[in-house]
């Protein structure tokens, strides 16, 4: 087995996956609607800001929480924005799963390097 060949096969499977097809189709639709595109960008940016804050040990402010809720409401009222965001979130779940599977396989044999136990 050649790992490069397998990597190319995985890349092909990713491109042909239902999740990627849905994301690509939703992306084509949202390109035509600047308002929906802006809503999604604003929502994703606000969500990332909140997530990074949590990772840093900070609580989301009441103002930021309200802003995020308002953006979510806007997105839910626009079918194109909602379709794209759902496809985006699903694709990110798949990508995270794939990353974990690959990272776990690549880490095999490196546990001997754990110096801080």
Describe what is shown at a glance:
This protein has five helices and no strands.
Give me some keywords for this one.
mainly alpha; 117 residues; 80% helix
Q: Multimeric state of these chains?
A: single chain
Mean pLDDT across all residues, rounded?
92
Order of helices and strands: HHHHH
What are the segments in which pLDDT stays under 50 over at least 5 consecutive residues?
none
Counting helices, strands and paired strands, the structural category is: mainly alpha
User: Would you count the extended β strands for me?
Assistant: 0
Main beta sheet, described? none
**Share of residues in helices:** over 70%
DSSP strand content? under 5%
Fold and architecture overview:
With 117 residues, the protein is mostly helical. The relative contact order is 0.13. The mean pLDDT is 92. α2 (18-31) packs antiparallel against α5, α3 packs antiparallel against α4 (62-76) and α3 (34-55) packs across α5 (79-107). The chain has 5 helices and no strands.
């Amino acid at each position: 087995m050649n790992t490069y060949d397998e990597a190319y096969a995985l890349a092909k499977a990713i491109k042909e996956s239902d999740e990627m097809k849905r994301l690509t189709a939703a992306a084509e639709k949202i390109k035509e609607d600047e308002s929906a595109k802006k809503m999604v960008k604003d929502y994703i940016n606000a969500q990332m800001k909140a997530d990074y804050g949590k990772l840093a040990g900070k609580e989301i402010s009441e103002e930021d929480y309200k802003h995020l809720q308002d953006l979510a409401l806007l997105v839910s009222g626009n079918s194109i924005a909602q379709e794209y965001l759902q496809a985006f979130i699903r694709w990110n779940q798949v990508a995270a799963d794939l990353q974990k599977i690959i990272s776990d396989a690549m880490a095999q044999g490196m546990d001997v390097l754990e110096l801080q136990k």
